[in-house]
Amino acid sequence: xxxxxREEQIDPIVHHDPLTGLMNRAGVHDRFAQVSAQDRxxxxxxxxxxxxxxxxxxxxxxxxxxxxxxxSIAERLKRFVFEGDLLAxxxxxxxxxxxxxxxxxxxxLKLAQKVREVLSGPFTLRDHExxxxxxxxxxxxxxxxxxxxxxxxxxxxxxxxTAMMRAKKEGGDRSQIYTPEVDAAALERLTLESGLREVxxxxxxxxxxxxxxxxxxxxxxxxEALVRWNHxxxxxxxxxxxxxxxxxxxxxxxxxEWVLQTAxxxxxxxxxSGLPPVRVAVNLSSCQLQRKSLIDLxxxxxxxxxxxxxxxEFEITESTMMQNIETTVETxxxxxxxxxxxxxxxxxxxxxxxTYLRRFPIDVLKMDRSFLVENSGREDGxxxxxxxxxxxxTLRLKIVAEGVETEDQLEFLRLHGCDAIQGFLFSxxxxxxxxxxxxxxxxxxxxRWQQASSERGGNRICWSS
Length: 465
Fold this sequence. Notes:
By secondary structure, the protein is an alpha/beta fold.
């Protein structure tokens, strides 16, 4: 009779995942040591694979179903490993592959594509088939290539994980090769994430306001509040670089509340100084829109700032409105009853149908700037913009064009019934003091075109009688 030593009995527990039978992270390091001892010169590929939305699968179907799915995924992944390779499960929904037969980036990307294709096929588990239109198994894959070295195995693992996180950040269901640029992006992400948790306490946010011009009268009728972050090391950061991070780490709601409070207080301050009243538009994120507490928050802010609700506007993107239609309609209707104006932002870039468009209690459609940028001078593109402006008129909605930068664009919009414009032709985003100066001139209509410099440099168009 052959008795196993204590070390032999412990090894499967220490180096293997009990659910799938695959190696675990400790086993990955051991495999690096073996590969390094056998061949120190040829490169190997390390693939870090993370399943997209796996947490949702567990929540919808339960952990037993999730475990069965992981076991099936492990079986499919085994098709891609050969003698000398390694497949390991290193996290709840994360797998690692060391591929000794892949040594070039092009090979690795092609193989990663095949892996994602295999995973996207239907899984049949206990008579349940997973392959609906809105529920598909996808994966984000990070790839690192290097000459095997036991001492640097942790670095290679980190690089592959960094590339995977970049793939996931860009929407998932894609592959990413590790490069120093990817590492720099990951470092910036960590810097932003860390700073955002303290951004309100450190008072690092500020607002700029971009004016809107009514084409019929030539008057300034509103401003859009745009948040900026004055980072102590990175300087002034625009929202496009940090808003998505704020959403992911749960900071978008406190930041959104700060923006609302600050914008309403500033608008009331302009009015108290005797300036012509205008609406201030504030962007609402999907997280804010789905919160039942939003109505109470808005009512409290309006009471504290003493701003009349008719001078507040909420901008919500078309795609955000479509996420939970019943809740959206209910929330927007409550805001409308308070006297607040509702604007659908980025109109034309989402997927709302005319049926849903009629259901939303909105006042304004904001034509996304991409239409002007991509379609100016193109007959078919201009026809689309004309149709959008006619649609707004038919639905008795105002339409505002964003990103207006040339006089040709302005004339086209005015000719075909656009109500208002926003863009650098009229003005870039400005400080509160610069907005105050424009408001003093807002009663002036279209007179002589005149170039004027802003206080911070650069030119804008303003009007004089």
